[in-house]
Amino acid sequence: MTEVEKKQNGEIYDARDPEIRSQYNRGKDWAKTYNSLPATDAQAKDMILRLFLGSVGKNVRINQPFSVDYGYNITVGDNSFINMNCTLLDAGPISIGSNTLLGPDVKVYTSQHPLNGAERFWEEPDGTMAVKTWTSPVTIGSYTWIGGGTVILPGVSIGDNVVIGAGSVVTESIPDNAIACGNPCKIKKWNPPLMERKQESDA
């Protein structure tokens, strides 16, 4: 199994691997290109997003600047909006549903390291130290709003029709229809389910 395959499968991998470094550098160069485009050139921005992200739905808007690690591990559904200064560190997969909003300065992380300091590094024969890393995917559902300044940690799943209050640190998964906030992020109350809202609007 290659180091890239290990990374994608959530196994400990060597981030110094030449192919991983090449993919990482391409992601950084892509982000630099995207962020340098005129804000008014919606067509060019959409084209670049579709070339370098894993999947982009219809009517997606990502404000500049936008930071990624690789790009190809990010999928964004229809009508979703990512505001300025968001950072999606996509060593592992990051999935964002449809009709979802990410406020400014949202950070999404997928990389993990051993908690024990002595286990956190490989030591080469010459004394060089290298960090052990593995990834855990992050999923954000549809019709969800992530407030500005929120940090989402590796392995978290956030459901549909969720609101996460600004400045929250999401350490555990949040189910559908929850309104949650805080550090650590905790459920405070509940949204009416989407189906109930649709029935009310049809009445």
General description of the model:
With 203 residues, the chain is of the alpha/beta class. Helices cover 22% and strands 28% of the residues. It is built from four helices and 21 strands. The protein has a seven-stranded mixed beta sheet, with no helix packed on it. Helix 2 packs antiparallel against helix 3. The longest helix is centred in the N-terminal third of the chain and has 19 residues, at 18-36. The N and C termini lie far apart (56 Å). The mean pLDDT is 94.
Task: Detail the topology: elements first, then pairings.
Layout: H1 3-8, H2 18-36, H3 42-52, E1 55-56, E2 61-62, E3 66-68, E4 74-76, E5 81-82, E6 86-89, E7 94-96, E8 101-102, E9 107-109, E10 111-112, E11 121-123, E12 129-131, E13 134-135, E14 138-140, E15 145-146, E16 151-152, E17 157-158, E18 163-164, E19 169-170, E20 178-181, E21 186-190, H4 194-202
Parallel strand pairs: 1-4, 2-5, 3-6, 4-7, 5-8, 6-9, 7-14, 8-15, 9-16, 14-17, 15-18, 16-19, 18-20
Antiparallel strand pairs: 10-13, 11-12, 20-21
What would a concise description of this structure say?
This protein is of the alpha/beta class and 203 residues long. The chain is 22% helix and 28% strand. The longest helix is centred in the N-terminal third of the chain and has 19 residues, at 18-36.
